Amino acid sequence: MSALHFDTLVWHWPIAIYLFLAGVSAGAMFFAVLLKHFVLKHNAYQSGFVQAACIVAPVAVMAGLGILVLDLTKPFDFWKILVFYNPTSVMSMGVLILLIYQVFMFMWIGITFRKPVDAWCEKRFPIVLKLTALLARFEASTTGLLVIFSLALGAYTGFLLSALPGYPMLKNPVLPLLFLASGLSSGAASALLGGVLLKGSPNGKEVHFIHKVEIPLILVEIVLIFTFFMGLVLTGGQSKIAAFNAIGYGFWGWVFWIGIVGLGLSGPLAMNLFMTATSKRKWAYVAGTACISLIGVLLLRNFILYTGQMTIA
Amino acid sequence: MENSKRRFLKGTCALLAGASGASLLATVNASGSVKAEPDVKYALIHDETKCIGCRACEVACREVNNVPEGVTRLEIKQAGPFGEYPNQFYHFSRKSCQHCEDAPCVNVCPTGAAFIDKQTGIVSVDAWKCVGCQYCIAACPYQVRFINPVTRAADKCDFCRETNLAQGKQPACVAICPTKALVFGNLKDPTSEVVQVLRSNPTQRAKVDLGTRPKLFRIVAKSGEVTL
After folding, report:
1. Shortest CA distance to B184 belongs to which of B175, B194, B176, B196?
2. Distance CA B15, CA B12 (A)
3. In terms of DSSP bridges, do strands B42-47 and B216-219 run parallel, antiparallel, or are they unpaired?
4. Is residue B224 a part of any domain in this protein?
5. How confident is the model at residue B23 (pLDDT cuts 50, 70, 90)?
6. What sign has the CA pseudo-torsion A149, A151, A154, A158?
7. Contact between B110 and A92 using a beta-carbon 8 Å cutoff
8. Which residue of A has its CA nearest to B153?
9. pLDDT class of B13 with cuts at 50, 70, 90
10. Is residue B133 included in any domain, yes or no?
11. Which of A6, A90, A188, B172 is deepest in the core (most CB within 10 A)?
12. B 25-44 residues with CB below 8 A of A?
């Protein structure tokens, strides 16, 4: 059996990229909200990190949806997913969550960047000022709902796979939590990477805050991965076989131990602890840590998707 | 700040109340319009003790349902040969849609293109509604679904619901079987052959532990190997 082509493989890497991008978007929006409310308050729009998150989130979610549509066998019929709904289908409910999430995402970005938007539109399109004023009245509700829907989107990427009863490794209640946690940390990483690229200070208070949240988040991820595989092994039968097929010898075993556990989790954890302990937050440290964190999450999505489909019930 | 928090909470509560009210209303409406239980529920028995592996069923299915080359709705799996000459034998088993009562493919389909026909209990596909996300193919624990290269939609056995059954005939595979190894009929009719055979023979269904409640039964032939 080859690692990338086998009989029971139905969904291949574009789905993993889509799951990754949806998680990045949800995580970036989540951390943008946290940064604004706990660190930056009304000056949030001046921060490179918030700007980066607000660019990454819409681009990632739309690129993800684009990949999803192109991966259909009938891409031009994608509108049927938007017209017909099935309440028992995780995918159908996910489409609903994605649509509502995007509405609140753009509303929140509009509210956060009200000052520069107003300044730019004052002479050219005075009508926009009325719109931003209206949006600003609903800031609290928009923020609350955006947080709820970003968390829902992050968890949805896991539920999408855990709704497949034929694959014992994917039919796992820990998977949505694992994907939520790793999605949030990938969002944080993309905000950090984009932030330092947009001339945000690598020693700024935003970086301090994100690192403070990221360290426990990575620890939670490690616990979730451990629980995920412990649960499979203790369930026995095909679940146990699936677990050992995934993390044992072979291509995906290397990806798991070196790429995910080593590079994607231990690396960022060590770097975050180092940067917190020594207060040395250089541009290269912050950007490098964010990069390996993102690579780790992308590998995790591919690893779960492929190894999950290797063993059937 | 306090004020906006309260407004947010109020708004969310109103939204939740509205949503639950709407779903409640939908259930009430649905339960009001439900008719008496349908009196037809089709099932199929594959008697492996009678199957000789001639594959006439595969050919008949392809012809009647216009299934393109390269894909198939039904497959006879062959294992063996077992035993020493002259007491050698093969083991044949049927791989096709199990017509689950609680079908994973129907549960996951985002558009409702995969559905259970209420009149007959047959799991079916609306090729027009299908967008080809392949969620159903991944969800099926029996690996019987495929993308039809002509319609680009998910496809599988539907007991000839749109072809032979609609013309009052038996499904193509059942009609063609030279050894009468396939028994098709209505589970709700106590006098039907399918019920008689089920009552008088021990049968098995695949992967029942997944809770899918399949309606494809097999009368198991003597097996050539011991699997643990």
Report:
1. B194
2. 5
3. parallel
4. no
5. low
6. negative
7. yes
8. A73
9. low
10. yes
11. A188
12. none
What was the pLDDT predicted at B21? 60
> For residue B101, is it within any domain?
yes
Helix boundaries (H) for chain A: 13-35, 48-70, 79-83, 90-112, 114-124, 126-137, 139-162, 174-197, 205-235, 237-247, 251-254, 267-278, 283-310
pLDDT at B215 over 90: yes
Would B153 be classed as within a structural domain? yes
Number of structural domains (chain B) is 2
Strand order in the sheet with B182-186: B182-186, B42-47, B216-219
DSSP-derived 3-state class of residue B39: coil
Q: Which residue has the tokens 């604004």?
A: A36
B83 is in which domain, residue-wise? 42-219
Same domain, B122 and B177: yes
Same domain, B87 and B185: yes
What is the nearest CA distance from A68 to chain B, expressed in angstroms?
8
- Same domain for B149 and B193? yes
Chain A touched by B138 (CB under 8 Å): yes
| Residues of chain A with C-beta less than 8 angstroms from the C-beta of B10 | none
Mean pLDDT of A155-176: 96
User: Which residues numbered 167-186 in B keep a CB inside 8 Å of some CB on A?
Assistant: none
Once rounded to an integer, what is the mean pLDDT over residues B81-104?
A: 93
Query: What is the CATH code for A13-310?
Result: 1.20.1630.10
